[in-house]
Write a sequence for this structure.
């Protein structure tokens, strides 16, 4: 005997297809237990036996559900088809809206910064910038902060190729309409595509929102003194957003100031 604990088994209990290759999926522990404690922004590695192999292959996905949701994990997952077909996501999407899979306990450091380098409370507005499925941890952030009753101002900027890929759009619009401390700025880079039919909102990549549109929404100039950024998305998105913010004096967690302070936290996704 190896002494290794058996893998955690889960069941897919819900699936909503936004497009043929993009879905919201919920996974519940198969034994009916509550999901373990975690922090908003963490990920869970899901496991499958791919191509008939007895070995379990794991892939990490950010949780879009908040820590307060104990019934299931929720994920926002894109079927990897480019540059090559992804074996794992292909197997996952072929499972449909049910089936068993495996999971590992939540982990990861892309969590909300609530303390400054000097130990004081972090109260700057949160500006959350996401491309594609990189919005997933920010859904967890937002639902957690609202559930906890924290009054920190939140700006969520989400860019997608097509309007139908703006996951959670309806829920985020409802929240923005009911809560003045939360604002939602979506944008679409391919507005003429059939999957964007009827789109009347902003167009272009998400970094294009960082100028006058963001400052109009918050009602003041965005500076390191009043705003803290989290960026989650493709490397190109991260590079473009950081290039804009660098000119404004913002510093990333990858190149902190001598006192340990920073204004941008980064997570590459996809």
């Amino acid at each position: 005997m190896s002494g290794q604990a058996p893998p955690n088994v889960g069941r897919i209990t819900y699936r909503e297809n936004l497009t043929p290759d993009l879905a919201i999926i919920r996974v519940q522990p198969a034994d009916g237990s509550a999901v373990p404690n975690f922090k908003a922004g963490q990920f869970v590695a899901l496991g499958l036996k791919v191509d008939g192999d007895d070995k379990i292959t794991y892939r990490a996905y950010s949780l879009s559900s908040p820590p307060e949701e104990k019934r299931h994990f929720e994920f926002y997952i894109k079927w990897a088809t480019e540059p090559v077909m992804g074996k794992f996501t292909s197997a996952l999407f072929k499972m449909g809206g049910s089936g068993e899979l495996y999971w590992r306990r939540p982990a990861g450091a892309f969590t909300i910064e609530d303390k400054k380098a000097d130990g004081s409370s972090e109260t700057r507005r949160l500006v959350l910038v996401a491309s594609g499925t990189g919005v997933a941890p920010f859904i967890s952030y937002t639902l957690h902060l609202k559930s906890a009753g924290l009054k920190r101002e939140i700006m969520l900027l989400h860019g997608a190729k097509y309007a139908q890929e703006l996951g959670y759009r309806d829920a985020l619009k409802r929240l923005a309409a009911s809560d003045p401390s939360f604002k939602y700025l979506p944008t679409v880079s391919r507005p003429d595509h059939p999957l964007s039919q009827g789109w009347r909102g902003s167009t272009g990549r998400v970094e294009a929102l960082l100028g006058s549109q963001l400052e109009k929404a918050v009602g003041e100039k965005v500076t390191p003194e009043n705003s803290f950024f989290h960026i989650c998305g493709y490397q190109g998105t991260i590079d473009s957003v950081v290039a804009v913010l660098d000119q404004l004096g913002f510093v990333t967690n990858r190149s902190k100031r001598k006192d340990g302070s920073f204004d941008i936290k980064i997570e590459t996704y996809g």
User: Anything to note?
Assistant: The chain has two domains: 8-103, 125-268. The first strand starts at residue 8 and ends at 19. The chain has a mean pLDDT of 92. Residues 136-147 form the longest helix (12 residues).
